[in-house]
Every structure is written in structure tokens, then in C-alpha cells.
Amino acid sequence: MLVLANASTAVGSETEELVLRLLVQLLVILVATRVVTVVVRRLGQTDVSGEILAGLLLGPSALGLVFPEISTELFHPSTSTIFVGLAQIGLILLMFQIGMEFEFSEQLGQRKASVVAVSLAGLVLPFVCGYLSAPWFHEQLAAPRPPLLGFRLFFAVSMSITAIPILGRIFMELGLSHTRTAALVIGSAAIDDVVGWLLLGSVSLIVAEQFSFVWAAQRIGLIGVYVIAVFFVVRPLLKQWLARDIARRGGLGLPTIAVVLIVLLCSASLTSYLGVFAIIGGFLIGLALHDDRRFVALWNQRVSPLVMMLLLPVFFAYTGLRTDIGALDGWWGLAVCGLVIVVAFGSKFGGAFLAARAVGESSRDALTIGVCMNTRALMELIVINIGYDMGVVPRDMFTMLVIMALVSTFVATPLIGWLMKGERRQVAAT
């Protein structure tokens, strides 16, 4: 790290010093990510698992534990804001791609009621179980403990969340994005996330003593209006323009990509303003264009590689850098963490499985749906980071919830691959 320490004498300005730090960080993250993903693929995991694990190894759980000075100097706080921006842009673009990849109309057919049923059961039961069990977990926390109500609400939300980006990556990498089960799960998870982010916003305001039912009603109404506008106004106009432009240019030109990005970022900005976070806006535009398969193929050819190989590893790795899984205190802490995992897995799996069976899914498909809906990963980390910043999720519980989120991802990949092994399509190696 001597080079970084003396960067100000080797380059001509503070800007160049910042650029050098950023470049070194990107190099380390990308190299570590590729090495770790090669290893985890041999263990039956997907790239997303390797990207998360690479972040953990570079953070306080490994590098920071063994070489704290190197870790601090390598990932200097001066670049943290830039990394957050890069990570969020990557996530928005990933959500756009996920929306385009899933063949909802073809695969779901008349099963839209199944999506709603699985989504609601997979949201309500975990929330109730989390809320009822939270007082016991609250008593196990180290003093000083946060206010009980705020802790209960955030703990309940953390039990309810599902990670669309992680599920999308798993399905795409396993060659399963074409299946009806994948479409049902992603549709259910999308509803879960929209409701979950609204719930998170409401809970945040309750904790801050600013909640208003008028606020919630306004947000729900505005989001409904926006979804209608996307599918009945933006979608037909954008599809017609894309068809004409691609035919005229004979492909996807740079001006066309620029226009799509403008629409995408506008959508992300609007949904963020409406209180359901920017990634939902990206997903909605992708879903609106999913049946234009020529555009999807061209986009995947020209734009997706940069997103998948650069921006996404930054998001997954940088989030892992903020996680310290060595913070648990002794065997009792591990036991409490195990119980958190049991409550999270049991309630989410139970709700999704029972709802799937109730709407006529086979036992195997219901098992698959239950496993998929348990995938929380980094969407969970967003929730608990908000709770941590607000002071209602203390550090020991924060660590337990991080472990629960990561375990759900590592367990889900092989189980999904095994349960759906007869439905795979061959996917290109990355």
C-alpha cells in the first residue's frame, strides 16, 4: 500500500489521487471476484455467490481481520460515495435486464392469481412470525437495547423480504429463466418487494414518529398510477419507436441505447421519489419491453456484458465489504443466530409452499417456490442497513441477519438447480 500512501507525490492533483485509489480498488475487486467465482462454480454455486463471498473475503471478516491496515488503506473512505453510486447504477441496470429476461405472458398464462397468492402468503406469514418472535430476540441483545417497537417492526420486515436481483441471477445462470416456475417466483417476489419497500418506508416513519396514513395512501395511489402509465402509455410508444429505429439502423445504435437509458433512469428516479426505491423503476421498464425479443437480444449483446462483468461485482463486493461475520459473541450468539435462521426460513418457506399448493402447484414446484422465496441476500442487507442507521437494529443482531441473508443465497442455488434439473437450458459460460 506504499504506492497509495505516496499517491499525492506521484500524481499532480487530489483528483488523480482519488482516481488511483478507485482504480486499485476496482482491480482488486474484479480479480478477487473472478478467482472466487471460479472456485465456487466448482462447488455448484453461481457467480453471484462468488461475488458476495469475494466481498466478504476483502472486508473485515477476512482481510480486515488479518491485515487491518492494508484493508483500511486499500478501501479508503474517500471513495465510498463513488462506490455507492456505481453499485446502485449497476443494480438498476440489472433489474432492467431481469425484467426483460422473464417470459411472463407465455409462462404464466392464466396463473396470475397464483402470483398474488404466493406473494401475499410469502410476505404476511414471515412478517407476523417475525413480529411475534422479536421480543424474545430483543431480550438476547447486548445492552443498551433499542426501543422494542422499532426493533420488532424492522425484524418483521427483514423476515419478509425476497431478493429479486439474486433470484434473477440464479435463474439466468442456471438456464432456468424460461420456466413457468421462474416467472411465477419472480412475479411473486416483485409484488413482495413493492409491498415490502412501502412497508419499509412506513416502518421507518413509524420509528421516526412521522407516520401518516394519508402518506401511505398517497404513495400507493401514485405508484398504481405510474404502473398504469408505464404499461399503457410508455410501453406502446417506446416499443413502436424501438421497432422503427432498429429497423432503420439495422441494429441497436448508440443513440438508441442513450434513449433507453434516459427512460430507464427517469423511471428509477420516479419510483425512488414515490418511496419504493429506484430498482423497481428499472424492473418495470424491463418488464414493459420483455416481449420485444429482438431488442432484448441486441441489448444483451451490446450492453449487458459491461453490467455483468463490472458494475454488478462492484455492487455485490462492496456490500460484502461492510459485513463483519466475526462479530458474534460466543456459542450463545451462534445459537441465537441459528434461531433467527430457523424463523426466517420456516416462515417464508411455509407461507410460499402452502400458498403454492393451495393454488394447484405440484409438491415439487411448491417446494421450489418455497426455496426460491427464501432467497434474501443483499436486498435483506439494504433493509437491515437502514435499521442499523436508524439505531433500531444493533450490531449483534445486524450480524445475525447478515448471516441469515447470505446462508439463504448459498443454500438456494444448489437446491433450485436440483429441484429444476430437468428444465435447464444450456447457457453460455461467463
From TrEMBL:
Cited InterPro entries: Cation/H_exchanger_TM, CPA2_transporter, Na+/solute_symporter_sf
GO CC term (a single one): membrane
Entry GO MF terms: antiporter activity
Keywords linked to the UniProt accession: Ion transport, Membrane, Transmembrane, Transmembrane helix, Transport
Topology term for the membrane: Multi-pass membrane protein
Localisation: Membrane
Domain Cation/H+ exchanger transmembrane: 33-421
Spans through the membrane: 20-40, 52-70, 82-102, 114-137, 149-171, 183-207, 213-234, 246-265, 271-290, 302-319, 331-354, 366-388, 400-420
Biological processes, Gene Ontology terms: proton transmembrane transport
Major subcellular location class: membrane
Gene3D superfamilies: 1.20.1530.20
Recorded coiled-coil stretches: none
Superkingdom, natural source: Bacteria
Name used for this protein in its record: High-affinity Na(+)/H(+) antiporter NhaS3
Originating organism: Enhygromyxa salina
Organism classification: Bacteria, Pseudomonadati, Myxococcota, Polyangia, Nannocystales
